[in-house]
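WP5 quarterly update. Target: Olfactory receptor. Source organism: Loxodonta africana. Length: 320 aa.
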Amino acid sequence: IGRNGITTNDLNRTEVTEFLLMGFSNSLEVQILHAVLFLLVYLAALMGNLLIIMLTALDAHLQTPMYFFLRNLSFLDFCYISATVPKSIVNSLTHNTSISFFGCAAQAFFFNDLASTEIAILTVMSYDRHVAICQPLHYEVIMNRGACVRMMVISWLSGMICGFMHVATTFSLPFCGSNVVHQFFCDIPQLLSLLDSEVIIIEIGVMVFITSLVVVCFVSVTFSYVSIFSAILRIPSKEGRSKTFSTCIPHLMVVTLFMISGSIAYVKPISDSPSTLDLLLSVFYTVIPPTLNPIIYSLRNKDMKAALRRQYGMLHGYFD
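C-alpha cells (predicted):
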C-alpha cells in the first residue's frame, strides 16, 4: 500500500484504499480559520435544531402537523450537518485530510440520503402550508395524523433509496488511481472525476434521474407557494398579509437556495480541477440550510417563542 492510500495489484492496476479531502486550502492559517468558522456554524445549527426538537416534543400547544413536520426537519438537519462538517473540522485542526474508502462511502451515503430526505420533507411542508391557507376548512381531514406519518415515512424511505443508488453505482466502479477529492467531504460529483469517463454513465444516469425528481419537487413547492401567495393577497387585513408573507418568503428562499445550488452542483460538467466557486457552492447546500432553518422557524415564530417561555417558566418553577 502506497503512502497515499493507493494499492498497486499484480495486474498493474491501482486500487484506492483511502481518499484525501483537500478542502478549501493547504494554508495552515486558512485551515484554522475554516475550522473555527465551521465549528461556530455547527454549534449554532446543533443548538437551534435541538431546541426545536425539544420544544415541539414537549409543548402541548405544538402538537400539530406543521410542528410534527418541523420536528422531523430539525432532526434531519441535525444529522445532515453532522454527516460532513465535524470530519472537515477535525481534518483542518489535525492537518490530516485522509478518509478511508468505506468511511468515504458511508459519508456519501448519509449525505445523499439526508439531502434527498430534506427535499422531500420541504416539499411536504410546503403542501401542508398550502392546505392550511388555501383549504383551511378541510385541513384537519386532509392532514390527519395517519397522512402525516405516511408522508414522513415515504420521505425518509425515498432518501434512503436515493443515497443507496448513488453509493452503489459510484463505489462499485473502479477508480483510476488518483485519490484526491477536491472537496471538504465525499461529494459524488467530485468522486466521479476520479473515475474513468467510460464507466460513469450509470452514475450520471442516476444523477440525472434524481435531479429530475428534485425539479419535480421544486415545481411542486413553487405551485404551492403561488397558490399560497394568491390566497394571501385576498386577505383583507394588511397586517394579516404582512405576517403571512414574512413567514413564507424566508422559507421559500432557503428551499430555493438549497434545491438550486444542489442541482447545479450535480448536473454541471465534471471538472478535474474545481474552482473556489465550486467549493462555496457546496456550502450553500450542506451548511446554510440546516443553520438557517432553526432561525426561520423558531426565532421568527410567535408560537415557538411562546412555547420557549412556557418551558422556561416550568423549568424555573421546578428548580424554585
